[in-house]
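Co-fold these.
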Amino acid sequence: MVLKISDVTKSYTSGATEMPILRGVSLELEAGTSLALTGDSGSGKSTLLHLAAALEDFDSGEISVSGTLLSGLDEAGRAALRRRQVSLVFQQFNLIPSLSVGSNLSLHARLGQCRDRTWEQQLVDRLGLAPLLDRFPEQLSGGQQQRVAIGRAMALRPALLLADEPTGNLDETSSEAVLGLMLDLLRDSRTALFMVTHSRAIADRLDRQMRLSNGLVA
Amino acid sequence: MIWAAFSALLSHWRRHPFQLLAIVAGLALSTGLWSAVQAINAEARASYARAAAQLGQAQADHLVAEDGDIPLQTYVALRRAGWQVAPVVEGRLRLGAQWLDLMGIDLLNPPPLPLFLDDQERPAAEAPGDIAQSLLPPGQIFLHPEMAADIGQPADGPGIIASAAVPRGVAIADIALASRLLQRPDGLSRLILLSPEAQDLPPIDSIAPGLRRIAAREAAGATERLTDSFHLNLTAFGLLSFAVGLFIVQGSVGLALEQRRGLFRTLRSLGVPLSTLVALLAAELVLIALCAALAGLVLGYAVAAALLPDVSATLSGLYGASVEGSLTLRPGWILSGLIMALAGSLVAGARAIHRLWRLPILRAPATGARGQQARRGFHLAALAGLGLLVAAAATLALFEGLLAGFAFLGGLMLGVALLLPMLLSTMLTLGAKTARGAVSEWLWADTRAQLPGLSLALMALLLALAANVGVGTMVSSFRLTFTGWLDQRLAAEIYVTVDSDDTGAAFSRWIAAQPGARALPIRWHELRHRNAPLRIYGILDDATYRRHWPLLEAMPGVWDRVADGSGVLINEQLARRHGYEPGDILILSPAWQMTVAGIYSDYGNPNGQAIVAMPMLLAQVPPPPNRQFGIRTPADETETLMLRMRDEFGLPRDSIADQASIKARSLAVFERTFVVTEALNVLTLGVAGFAMLTSLLTLWGQRLPHLAPIWAMGVTRARLARLDILRSLLLAGLTACLALPLGLALAWTLLAVINVEAFGWKLPMFLFPLDWLRLFLLALLAAALAALIPARRLARLSPSDLLKVFANEK
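Predicted complex below.
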């Protein structure tokens, strides 16, 4: 089991008011499988994704990634988990503007000290990034930037890929191309995909779907 | 509409109060230092003008001799021809422990000085007293009340009369008394023309061909001209501080515009014309500038009031110029502070306003290609910097004078500052090639990416560090040279002053009878040479001079030439001022001409000086006072000899001093001279450190999108915070490395160009690597402190704030 979320709750406080976001969510995700998480705005989708990435603490319940219980980790342990097991792809691409495409691509794998140049070259070829390697993010289109972001995430060969609306900023053609590439790469690397999306069409292309409503699995 | 748009613009500052604080503080600091310098200069100049007016220099033209004194017969000839002229004898006089400028005038027929004209309007306490008493033996000397109190009433000799109408540092007496005290029975220093436009009189040239007429304004400005270089130095420092402060303002204003691009776009789409928007932005800037200027003026007043006593001591020590009174609010420097603050903020904001003017209505708040824009900006700045460097070098090569020196310095400093971003970018690119590992590669690249935002603060740091290296090297070189020079110049073991010439003669005889001891009389006569005072010392032919005197250039057999009366030694100031070299003829008076045998260094003295053999001096001038002596004696007998001198001649404690205490006193005066410079140095460095802090804090909001992805990839916030400090250290360290050569160039200019023009002496340049190391560490400390607040904030930042970056909320 790559990701196991058991009865997780999470609330935010605003002044004296406590606002529950997740009210006991559970799910499981096997290696090489994909899950689409859908729901209305404010339903807690992104929060659940952030909790799975060990970016935020949860209030109760448990999350394990590749057998590691997140509740037992301090910040350094969580950072180490993200360096080696988990990759993220965001709607805003979030590339490092000061690094070239080539450096952005290899960055996460080098941080995790598991760089595989052959795999990296395959990613470059399959994502069509070879002519862009010396450019900087600001010189790329949105579709190109998202391909680099996917390449950066996959270069790590993560156990778990977490994607938050990865095609939300792209037009339909680019969106289709990027999603196809991502699913191809996942299939070959046995990486589990947990994706947050609003798009019914995209959700339909993943193995499973789950809908959140008011912090509960609908 | 206008008010609605203006309040929308101002709402930015509610969300970014620190940015507003940075602009106000930057402008207030820079205006404060500038105003402080202007206030000090204004106070000093007002003091000179007051003194000149009190001495009547501003009211009438003067006649002076080109060389030497005006013979009494010339005065008589002018009076007989009908010219209304008032004679004046001037010279230095020691009263008690103080040296004063004694001005002797004819009290029976006094020139129209305020001292004598305003009696009816002046309170009794300030009145100059009974003039008749001044004419009767032993006579009276008029002094400023504070000086009169310091000196006290002597047991014998002329009486001391306190008068607030006399400037500090000046003594006024009847001409007969002054001539006697100054040992100048037949010579006059100058004549005051009481009826300058006499039509029916023979021309002055025909009666007194050797005299030169000096206009009243020129005479009144003599002290001001003498001290101009000092005030120009202060102004240059004030300008540097102002420029450093403006960097803070420009950075903050630019950022405020950047962050409000979305607001501008919205306002324009809601129908606010671009011209109105630009005008509102300018009005906002003026409003902020006015508030900051008022704060700066208060700060400037406080700094000026704190520094004025040291400035006064410096001017007195260097030029003998007296600055009296406390600091007053003068419209001149207040207005100059306001204008500088307004003009400076508009200059600093001009680029931002220009960018707004050219901003397309639908331009997104944060579009791409910012890095390329920055790189283009670096190239343009570097080109402008190179241009300035070439212009600065051309100025130095083509023009002479203090202003050319300062123009060179300005071009050099600003030129290298403009080159800095390009140089740093290149160094960071080279550094990135040495990176091993993802984090270090990211650190180098990210540091380079931060350059556009930090470049202004780094320029400010470069200027402040270079100024510190330059001025520090100048002061330390001067100190080293001065100390060595003192060792040479103060070769005698004991220095003694006795109260009369008779005691002096007895003292000489007594010393000659002491085994192992000999006296070197210090006797001098002051005359005028090329319309400036020239003090001529007479010396005995003694091994002390031959071994120790600090000669810079000399003819072969220089000491033999001086001893046989054929040669004269002159100080460096006199040589540089008139271009004298060894072998040239020096005309001391029409009847006294000598060959310049050598030139010696003479620091801390603005006037010309010469040395001749004692017999030559005694043959050419009336017997000068014989009251000061240097005593050579074996070092281990110094204490005993001093005690015996005191017993034998009843000398008071302050009339006798050993070499060490005189050196200590001289060094104390020297150190005080540079207190103001070093204070301004430290303040400028403080402003630069503040510039770093404000830049880092104002850039804080822009940093998160760069940091959040790295954090998401597994680099902890604590490590990111440490890396942020490291980045600041790296940039400050590289800037400090570049500041060193610039600072040394500044030091060379100060020592070899500015000092020569300002003071008349050239100093050797020494290098002080330990001082550089200290400054380097200080720069790192300033950078670390500046980075500490943002780093601490980063380390404690909640994950939800970082996650907002991914949700596009930042």
